[in-house]
Each structure stands twice: as C-alpha cells, then as structure tokens.
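In response to reviewer comment 3 from the previous cycle, which asked for concrete evidence that the modeling workflow produces usable outputs, we include below a single protein chain processed end to end. The sequence was submitted unchanged, and the resulting structure tokens are shown without manual editing.
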Amino acid sequence: MITTNQSESSNGHHPQMLRMIPVSQIAPSPTNPRKYFDPAKLQELADSIQEHGLAQPILVRPVKQSYLLEDSFEIVAGERRWRAAKIAGLKEIEAKVRDLDDKAVLEIQFIENLQRTDLSPIEEAEGYKRLLDEHGYTADSLAGKLAKSKSYVYGRLKLCNLPEPALTALAKGDLPATVGELIGRLPSPNLREQFWNSKFRDALTPPSFRDVKSIIERDYMRELKGAPFSQTDKKLVPAAGDCKNCTKRTGNNRGDFPDGRADICTDVMCFKLKTKLFQERRLKEFAGEGATVLSEKESKQWFSWGGSLHWQKMKEFVDLADECDEARPEIDFDNEEDFEDKPGPSYGELIGEVKPDVVAYDDRGTLHRLVSKPRAAEILRSKHGIEIETPLPGADFSYSASPDRQKEREEYELRKKARGLALEQIAAKVAAWYDAEFISRFKTGYGSKSVLPDLLRAIAGCLLRNFDDWAPVSATLKRRDALNTADEVDDSDEFDQVVAKLLQNADAADLIGILAEVCVREELQYWSRGSDGKQFENTICDFAGLKIDEFEKQALKELKPEKKAKTKPKAKAVAKA
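The workflow returned the following structure tokens.
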C-alpha cells in the first residue's frame, strides 16, 4: 500500500492519510443510511471511472480484526464510488484513512454528506432517529446541525412511526413522504394502523395530502374550544391530566404541529373518555336535583337521529334548547325584507333557569333538558303571556288507551315485522341468484372470476361508508356478526373499520347479498314511515323475478299465533218418546 499524503482534516482534529487500498479490504458501513443503489446509475459511474478514473477518493476508517491477516477498512463516505469501482474492475481504490469513533462516523454520514446524497425519506428518517437515540442529539439541535427547519426534522422523524405496509409503500414511492408524516403524527400505533387499513389498504385511488389532512382533522382531532368539559380539569381523567398542559394539544407540540391552531386535541379516544365521564358526572348532578335521568337505551327511544325529540314525547315535554314556535315574531307581509323565516327564542330563554324534569344525552353527545309541558305552559303564561298546546289532564300517550287503536297498532307492527322478514329473504334470494347466474357468466364470458370480488368489494366499501343513514348498515353488520348486538358506532372512522372488516374476506355472492340487505333495510325504513315501497319492488324484486307480497303473506302466516279451532257443543240426546 502506498501512502501518498498525510494531513489533518478541515477541523484540525482527525489526522488522515491518502492511500491506495485493495477494494477487497474495504467493507460497507452498517450505519450507512443509504440502503438502495440504482444499478443503472452505478453502471454509468463505473463507465466514467473506466474512462476518466476516480475523481474523488472515498473516506474510510481502519477496523482491527484479529482473525484477518491484513487490516480491513470500513467505508465512512463513498460507498457508491466503491461499488462502481468494483464494477469497473479496479483492484485498488484511492481512500482517505481517518481514525473516527462511531458518533463521528454518523455525523459525517448524515450531516456532512446529507446535502449531496439522494437518501430516500425513510432512510433519512432512520438516520435522524439513530442520531437521537444513540448519540445524544435532540430534534432541535439536529435541525441546527443540518441547517434545516425544526418542522422538517420533526416531520421526517414521524415516518419512523408508520405501520409496516405504509413503510413498504413509502419505500416503493407509492406513498408521498408528506402524507406519511401526517399519518405518523397520529398518537398511537393502533390509530395509525386503523387509518392505513381504512383509507389506503383497499383504496383504488389513495387519498391525496389534502384529503388525508382533512380526514385526520375531522375524525382524529377534536376542537377543545367546543369540549363540554373544562380544559383545566385535572381530576376528570387523572392519568391524562388537564388539556391546557397536555402534550397532545397542538399548541404544546409545535414540533409536530408547527402550523394551525393551538387548541386542537390529537387524542380522540382521550377526548371521548373525558366527554363520557363528564356526561356521567352531569347526569348524577341532575339526578341529585330530582330529575329523571334516561339511560342510553331510553334516550334512543326518546330522540330521533340528529337529536330531535320524538314527536310522541313532544306532546308531553318541551326541550329547553328548542325554539318556541308560539313566540316566533310575526312576519310583516308589507315589508319584502321581512319575508324570511325568523327564528323565535328558545324555551330555555323564555322559561329561564329551572330544574329540568328529564335529562338525557342523545347519540351525538348533546345534553337535553326537558320540562313537562303543563309546567312549561304555566311558566310561559305567567311570565310572557304565551299560550302553548298542552295535553288534556289524564291523557294517555301510549297506544293502549283505545282498544281499537291498540289492535291497529299491533297489526301495523306485525305487518312491519313480516315485511322485514320478507325483504331479508328476498336479499338472500338475490344473493343466491347472483352467485348462480351472474358470476358463472362472468367467469365464462368476461375473464377471471377473481377480479369481480375485488371490484365489488371496492364498490361496496364506497357505498356503505357513504350511506346517509347508518341504521340499515349497522343492522346488517350486527346480523352478520361484524358488530356486537350491544355495540353502537358513534364515530365515522370506527364505522369504516367495521365495514372494512366485514368486506375483507367476503366473496362476490356475500358482497351482493350485503348490498341487497342494506337496500332492503333502507326500503323498510321508508315503508315504515308511510312510503309505498314501490321503489324497491320495481328494482331488486323485479330484477330477481320475485314478488314481495308472496313473501309477506308467508311471513305473516308464520308470525301470527295459531288460532284454536272452535269446537261446537255436543247436541243433547233427545229421549225417544
């Protein structure tokens, strides 16, 4: 080996020698963040070395290994040049030899050479993490060393949090680093995996950066300003502490959230837990004041979807948050600007601070304070001279007051149940027909059978997740054991997860059956509200050649209890004269 030069490095601390070293005595560094080398570009560099020679020596450090007869060297910088020199057929390569410790090697690999090496985002992120974990850097000090912004370093570090499928997509270039950083900011591995599975795993077109940002802000973050509980309450969830000083509040974690508002909670599950415990605390307080507290099951019977009081209960109670129609200002028809419908004051504004008779939270987490209508009418009359309709004394709001009405109601419920059974049978028939007819035709006439379930799965997922009303889908999920009977889905992301789980292993017949059943249940809702049901009969039923009346008659026959045959009294024996 020939020593051609000996000098000190630019910082004056590490003496170095310029030598010619056999390529066989040089090995790559295990800490080099760069794991992939483009074969085509390596060949281009090898051709250049053959023609012009090596323009710049590589940097190595000596590694003493007792089992080797000769000294070996570890590449600190220049592995790409070393690989190209081997391809070019060089036996020796010019190298600078320096004695460096592990920290110095990493600094050179990740700091001095970072600006001129085309590292992939994940290679860069893993390198940053190693400097933080093993060599005492902080994200802030690393940003200063790299001459990069803090947000850039924090963002890259979040890529290390991605689930394995996302890391694979990132390495292939299928996942932009900016989108990966958004996913990596989610506060737990479980949430990150859920998000990936629901939004990317089966997606025909992956969501964009803007879409992902919007979804995360909508479904995985909560605005603390609108929280029902106090942000300074440390006792609500002692393990989490208060929200003002929580690290999961965006304003307290500007490294991960350098832009945007400061009062956003990034831990939805903690927010939900605090909301639930606060609601339970409030209900206990109301119960202590003598109010009737509705259970979750009772609340669903009292309030319709969206939180409005059921029309039957409106006859008995007023919701203090609702508008008082009788107090709505009159419209001046001579003034065109007054034609707009002007809302009136709420019952609560008119009645004032009173103890409610009934309290409950609806399915959206809104608190409802109800006052009996006779009590509300008395207060409104005495304070404002407003008269509202009240029930007659002793009025019965159940349907048992009139035997004829009760019988009519029972008959209605029976027919409703029978129609539901009929429609579910039709859904099964449609699925069976689809399996026997359409799939076989597709297999023989249109190509591979395996393509169809994938297409249907994507269509089903899109339709089910974007259904206006979750009730028909939830009922279908429960019947197919994808959702426990007692479970209720109150979050769009949870709902997406359950749907994805159901569709994951479904074949084509299952998928069309699921869609048909959901349509059945949606149609049943329309029918039960008084619609004629012709839309369903003219689509799925006609398509499958089925008559809903026949199924409904059979279901009614099975549901109605068998009537005991009346036996005629035996005729008395007539004595013969």
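DSSP finds 22 helices and twelve strands in the chain. We consider this sufficient to address the reviewer's concern, and the full set will be provided in the supplementary archive.
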